[in-house]
Amino acid sequence: MNSEQTILPEIEDIKKKWLSCEREKIPLKEKLKAINQCQRDFRKQLQSYMETTGLFTLQLSDEQVIELKTKQRVIYNEERLSEIIEDPSVLNEYKLANSVTCSRFIVKKRKIDDTN
């Protein structure tokens, strides 16, 4: 029995409506993509400003705050990891030689307290 033969006429109508909704999403997705690109450009400018002035937080509005977080990561490869396991004293040398400093730029929305 073919699965297409068992579909009810109501389902065909629902499928058409669903596809219509999908087509309506396309221009919205394109608009959202353009807005996100615009925000990326502004984010880069804000991040640069925060890095040059040494700011770690910047309040955009009552609801949004930007945070700049910096941390160091150590990248391990299989060869180095085996050396570290065999000789723990190599770990500190490896961290100093192979640490990478990463900055993350985070936009946080503040939680609004509804109890007031």
Describe what this molecule looks like in 3D:
- This protein has 116 residues and is an alpha+beta fold.
- 55% of the residues lie in helices and 22% in strands.
- The longest helix is centred in the N-terminal third of the chain and has 45 residues, at 9-53.
Helix and strand string, N-terminal first?
Answer: HEEHHE
**What sort of overall outline do the alpha carbons produce when their principal axes are compared?**
flat
Based on DSSP secondary structure assignment, what is the total number of beta strands? 3
End-to-end CA span: 62 Å
Oligomer kind = single chain
Q: How much is the radius of gyration in Å?
A: 26 Å
Overall structural class, as computed from helix and strand content, comes to alpha+beta
Tell me the number of helical segments per DSSP (H or I, 4 or more residues long): 3
Count of distinct structural domains: 2
Spatial arrangement of strands, main beta sheet: 1-2-3
Task: Summarize model confidence as the mean pLDDT.
Answer: 80
Give the % helix.
55-70%
Main beta sheet, described? Answer: 3 strands, antiparallel
Instruction: Please mark out the parts with pLDDT under 50 across 5 or more consecutive residues, or reply none.
Output: none
Strand content: 15-25%
Fill in the keyword field for this structure.
116 residues; alpha+beta; 2 domains; three-stranded antiparallel beta sheet; 3 helices; 3 strands; 55% helix; flat
